[in-house]
């Protein structure tokens, strides 16, 4: 049942407020009389105790008249509408009241039918205005969620540093104080017989399927009103982050929610996923470690199935698996960087580990290498370094249950193709990053986003972020902030421009925020810095410098 809006009646003539209470069809108008007052002072007291959406108010009253009441209401920023009641002789006052934002006025003696129509119109306008504001708020909330998911993706992939200083530069420093997250990784076992049809799908079909999984997960979490993010980390793998706003979830609660998500996917997407959960809550700064811990644990759980916890005291990987996995991670890193020497070193190390596997049963050794090969294949595919025909070679080796030597040969072959493609990409990427850097340097004076810079060179935001960090050794935000601060330092030392003007020159619309970042970067506010660089001259001091 919809709750009625509240109306407050203010008039020093008692019979008028009584007639208004009785004659106006308040319930039909969706309103309820919250109280009556004889003057503005009483009305303000009532407003402190109870919220009102509409006030019907006389102009001339003792103690505090209607004009002063409206002025106080606007001064306090109260979200309500006012309809004035006035006599003919008060028309001058009525015009003044309209300047204070009064919605309408009705002349006394009050024509109740006309007043009813005025109230209905004013309230309809108010409700429409509030619905629009709520829609805008919802849209902004969705945009913020998208921005947060972009930040969280970069954090999970370890593309960006998470420190108070870095978050300040990015303008999202409040993130550091956010509650911890429950980290759940959902993964399709791409090497299983159940996924055989998935392996035969086209890239477009897989993309649509991945998106459908994301939609299922988001709908399920939205129904439960859980603050969350659903991030696709690679083809057939997703990371679900549930923000623990009020309380820490127990492992039983984590497992219950994970089973709920798995069931929803199974029901709507017709594929069975496995799930890994980080055994404890993870802060923003620990998300990358938590994600990699769960991902590695799931891949190395040779006999694992369904749902498991990783990252607890007793969940460390068995030593041979851990050593082999670390080698695979370094191999992937070398391939993505287009470093043939690193790739050859890690392939030799992998072969040596297999040769000196000792008493490890062949079945277990083959399973370990199988998981390494799958991980390598998925990472290469995600980076665009594995052609479709090479992917099919991998599947044939895995499905045919070839021996260790055959599987190692497939890994070598894929690595050879991957490093060649990566080297070509690296040359092209260096050109792209050079173009991107020039674009950024030319546009430091205005608001500039990583999405815009990525679009300029024709890359996705996530891939651009990775390449930029690899090329220049710092993130997009770190580079932009450093360049802006260095320009600001030069302008402060060498020109007489005001701090406000310099802030705008280096891309900050708000002087206060520019000062905050500058102090974090240099340890001084802009005026202090200018004074120290201009021979101790008395520099201008602006309010926001203090």
From TrEMBL:
<keyword id="KW-0597">Phosphoprotein</keyword>
<dbReference type="InterPro" id="IPR018060">
    <property type="entry name" value="HTH_AraC"/>
</dbReference>
<dbReference type="InterPro" id="IPR011006">
    <property type="entry name" value="CheY-like_superfamily"/>
</dbReference>
<dbReference type="InterPro" id="IPR020449">
    <property type="entry name" value="Tscrpt_reg_AraC-type_HTH"/>
</dbReference>
<dbReference type="InterPro" id="IPR009057">
    <property type="entry name" value="Homeodomain-like_sf"/>
</dbReference>
<dbReference type="InterPro" id="IPR051552">
    <property type="entry name" value="HptR"/>
</dbReference>
<protein>
    <submittedName>
        <fullName>Response regulator</fullName>
    </submittedName>
</protein>
<feature type="modified residue" description="4-aspartylphosphate">
    <location>
        <position position="58"/>
    </location>
</feature>
<keyword id="KW-0963">Cytoplasm</keyword>
<keyword id="KW-0902">Two-component regulatory system</keyword>
<dbReference type="Pfam" id="PF00072">
    <property type="entry name" value="Response_reg"/>
</dbReference>
<dbReference type="InterPro" id="IPR001789">
    <property type="entry name" value="Sig_transdc_resp-reg_receiver"/>
</dbReference>
<feature type="compositionally biased region" description="Polar residues">
    <location>
        <begin position="526"/>
        <end position="535"/>
    </location>
</feature>
<feature type="domain" description="Response regulatory">
    <location>
        <begin position="6"/>
        <end position="123"/>
    </location>
</feature>
<feature type="region of interest" description="Disordered">
    <location>
        <begin position="526"/>
        <end position="546"/>
    </location>
</feature>
<keyword id="KW-0238">DNA-binding</keyword>
<keyword id="KW-0804">Transcription</keyword>
<keyword id="KW-0805">Transcription regulation</keyword>
<feature type="domain" description="HTH araC/xylS-type">
    <location>
        <begin position="434"/>
        <end position="532"/>
    </location>
</feature>
<dbReference type="Pfam" id="PF12833">
    <property type="entry name" value="HTH_18"/>
</dbReference>
């Amino acid at each position: 049942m919809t709750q009625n809006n509240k109306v407050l009646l203010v008039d020093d003539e008692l019979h008028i407020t009584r007639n208004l209470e009785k004659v106006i069809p308040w319930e039909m108008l969706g309103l309820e009389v919250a109280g009556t007052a004889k003057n503005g002072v009483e009305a303000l007291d009532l407003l402190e105790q109870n919220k009102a959406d509409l006030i019907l108010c006389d102009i001339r009253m003792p103690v505090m008249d209607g004009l002063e009441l409206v002025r106080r209401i606007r001064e306090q920023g109260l979200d309500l509408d006012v309809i004035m009641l006035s006599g003919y002789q008060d028309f001058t006052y009525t015009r003044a009241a309209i300047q204070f934002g009064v919605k309408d006025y009705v002349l006394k003696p009050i024509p109740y039918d006309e007043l009813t129509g005025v109230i209905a119109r004013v309230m309809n306008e108010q409700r429409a205005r509030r619905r629009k504001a709520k829609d805008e708020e919802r849209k902004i909330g969705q945009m913020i969620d998208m921005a947060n998911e972009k930040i969280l993706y970069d954090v999970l992939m370890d593309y960006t540093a998470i420190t108070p200083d870095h978050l300040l530069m990015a303008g999202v420093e409040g993130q550091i104080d956010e509650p911890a997250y429950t980290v759940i990784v959902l993964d399709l076992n791409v090497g299983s017989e159940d996924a055989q049809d998935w392996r035969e799908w086209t890239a477009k079909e897989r993309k649509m399927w991945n998106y459908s999984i994301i939609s299922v997960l988001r709908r399920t979490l939205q129904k439960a009103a859980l603050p969350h993010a659903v991030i696709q980390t690679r083809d057939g793998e997703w990371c679900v982050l549930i923000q623990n706003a009020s309380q820490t979830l127990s492992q039983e609660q984590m497992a219950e929610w994970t089973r709920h998500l798995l069931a929803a996917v199974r029901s709507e997407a017709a594929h069975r996923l496995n799930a890994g959960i980080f055994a404890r809550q993870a802060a923003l700064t620990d998300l990358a470690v938590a994600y990699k811990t769960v991902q590695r644990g799931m891949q190395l759980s040779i006999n694992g199935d369904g749902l498991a916890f990783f990252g607890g005291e007793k969940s460390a990987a068995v030593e041979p698996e851990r050593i082999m996995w670390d080698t695979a991670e370094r191999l992937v890193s070398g391939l993505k960087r287009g470093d043939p020497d690193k790739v050859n070193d890690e392939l030799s190390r992998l072969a040596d580990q297999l040769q000196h596997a000792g008493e490890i049963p062949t079945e277990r050794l083959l399973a370990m290498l199988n998981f390494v090969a799958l991980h390598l294949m998925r990472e290469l595919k995600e980076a665009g370094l594995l052609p479709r025909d090479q992917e099919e070679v991998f599947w044939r080796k895995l499905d045919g249950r070839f021996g260790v030597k055959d599987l190692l040969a497939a890994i070598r072959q894929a690595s050879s193709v991957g490093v060649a493609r990566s080297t070509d990409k690296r040359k092209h990427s260096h050109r792209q990053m050079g173009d991107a850097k020039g674009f950024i340097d030319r546009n430091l004076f205005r608001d500039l986003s990583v999405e815009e810079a990525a679009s300029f060179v024709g890359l996705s935001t996530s891939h651009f972020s990775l390449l930029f960090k690899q090329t220049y050794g710092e993130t997009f935000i770190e580079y932009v902030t450093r360049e802006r601060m260095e320009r600001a330092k030069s302008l402060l030392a060498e020109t007489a421009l005001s701090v406000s003007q310099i802030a705008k020159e280096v891309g900050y619309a708000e002087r206060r925020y520019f000062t905050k970042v500058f102090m974090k970067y240099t340890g001084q506010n802009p005026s202090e810095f200018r004074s120290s660089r201009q021979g101790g001259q008395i520099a201008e001091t602006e309010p926001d410098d203090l």
